[in-house]
Amino acid sequence: xxxxxxxxxxLLDRVNPQQDMTRLCxxxxxxxxxxxxxxxxxxxxxxxxxxEQQLDFAIIRNSSLGIKMGDVSGRPLEYPxxxxxxxxxxxxxxxxxxxxxxxxxxxxxxVYQQKDFDFSGTQKFDQRLGYHTQSVLTLPLLTRSGxxxxxxxxxxxxxxxxxxxxxxPSLEPLVQTLAQLAAIAVQQQHIMQDQQALLITLSGEPNxxxxxxxxxxxxxxxTHxxxxxxxxLRDQNxxxxxxxxxxxxxxxxxxxxxxxxxxxxxxxxxxxxxxxPNHHHVxxxxxxxKEVVSIDNAYTNTEFDFSGTxxxxxxxxxxxxxxxxLPLLNHAHEVIGVLQLVNAxxxxxxxxxxxxxxTAPLIRALARYAAIALNNQLLVEExxxxxxxxIKAIATAIDAKSPHxxxxxxxxxxxxxxxxxxxxxDQSTFADFELDADGWYELQVAxxxxxxxxxxxxxxxxxxxxKLHCLNDRIHHVESRFAALRQQVEADYWQAMAQEPTAEKVxxxxxxxxxxxxxxxxxxxxxxxxxxxxxxxxxxxxxxxIAQQQWYDHQGKLQPLLSADEVENLCIERGTLTxxxxxxxxxxxxxxxxxxxxxxxxxxxxxxxxxxxxxxxKMDGSGFPRGLTREQMSIPARMMAIADIFEALxxxxxxxxxxxxxxQALSILQRMRDNNHIDPDLYxxxxxxxxxxxxxxxxxxPEQLDVVDPAAYR
Length: 714
Fold this sequence. Notes:
Layout: H1 4-15, H2 21-36, E1 38-47, E2 54-62, E3 67-69, E4 82-83, E5 85-86, E6 89-90, H3 95-102, E7 106-108, H4 120-129, E8 136-142, E9 148-158, E10 164-165, H5 172-203, H6 208-223, E11 225-236, E12 239-249, E13 254-257, E14 268-269, H7 282-289, E15 293-295, H8 307-316, E16 323-329, E17 335-345, E18 352-353, H9 360-401, H10 408-425, H11 437-448, H12 459-462, H13 475-499, H14 504-529, H15 537-547, E19 550-552, E20 558-560, H16 564-570, H17 579-598, H18 608-612, H19 635-650, H20 662-674, H21 680-688, H22 691-699
Antiparallel strand pairs: 1-2, 1-9, 2-3, 2-4, 5-6, 7-8, 8-9, 9-10, 11-12, 11-17, 12-13, 12-14, 15-16, 16-17, 17-18, 19-20
Helix pairs in contact: 1-5, 2-5, 5-9, 6-9, 10-11, 10-19, 10-22, 13-14, 19-20
């Protein structure tokens, strides 16, 4: 004969390895039927919380009727769940719900003689299937902490002759022991399922703030905690502390931190002023020792300093009783934060109770999964911050490389984002254009790096603020030659006076005319040297005419007033660069594309080279470096082209030209639109959505904003 002890061991050996809830339920029911000789039985699983709890049919078996429902090999169950509460009142009418609510075992010899419960459903079942339900044994499956996980109901105990008899009272202790073991197995199965779901949930949350919120919410749900605080460990300048990151409390309606109002509370230092570990505070103790701390009553505990907690309670008219602090340890067993929960609530009565040991496995798993997921997010965030800082450092280096374009690499991202925002808000031409968080970041990175190739551009070209600028402005050399010419005029005057003193007035007039001409020519060359939007042909001819004048060098040899190189530079039609120098400048786009395409950008940033490398392309294909047409360019690349042009036109830090007013800049963009150099739809958006005005308020001088109605530029 098999003893109860052996039967229990055999049951444990069978249920512990079981990984499937349905098979576990079937195993529990079959073991109970074997133990009691029951012809049939049902196992209900408890689902829901509080007044929403109900008993779901999990497994139904009946040998006489050949019924096998609910198992993976059985027919699906279509019976409605049994609510534990109806109209907010306990449902004592059904035998299973009564056992669930009271925690009592019920042993009924004949249900047809029983008036305490509603067996109308049973009677309909019997009538429909030609069955006769007589004896019923019902008992709840409760965990060690008294939490209901299931209800077991057995029908029609049979003797060795197959006759229906009442369930023997002597079997009740054995069945209750079975129920306790089964409750533990079901609870463990629930924990495993919850852990799996929790891991999927946490690992799938890409937003750090939302991940933190989810961790705290899940912890409160698992432990039925009224409140909770999540701290993150910060270590700056060798000072480790726990910063308040999130604070929630259901009773007080508090939700602080994250996207809500900030937490106005000082951090908790891990070490005191004398360098000793701060073991006075529960959270710092958990962080330092890497231990879980559970306090049943904060007001009677003498191990920790709860003066701050008591002050909070007095201020908020609250009462902190139970408390649970868990360190968040990453894969390297390093503390990255602490999760602190307060006031566990009994899910049935709502009373504050100590934190249950039954929730320990799941809450520890949550802390472990949360720490790993959070650590991954923090690592990604740290890498992103490092990348952002590196990108901005490159942009700053480019701007610092040339004081004449300082701030360009910072203003282009601003203007690009303003254009993109207008496109996202547009409901007509760009109704289908949108950017998610990754898309915005990709555009920002591209905008910051759009001129990174200028790092390879020679300073002599990049810093060429005037036409004659090389390592210095060679206009000073020209000015020295004019000074020598003036001295030559003076010498010629005195020589003429010595030879023909009676013609002094004529000599003076000739001297003054020559000096005036030299002054006028020098002034003309100084103006031409500054560069501009366009240099007329007659001005270029005058430069060449002036160049034909001669002066005596230090060796007394006659030299042309301007060298061939100086003539070429002074005759530059637009700006300050020769064609050769402009080719060098333009080559920065080739270098930019090569640099960016050589970088192993992650998938979410794979379009950065295309965005950044297209801001000098034109819609008609006449741009550089690749000669792309409008159809070959993405919308963000076309946006960046407009941003780069408009910023350059209105920039205040270009010494070779005054900053343009908005009216002049829009006129140039309008011509570029008409010549099919910039995207016409984006130009219309830029104009109609007054992106130029928003940018002007953010980055330009007030006097530059001289347009009110942009109709003239449509």
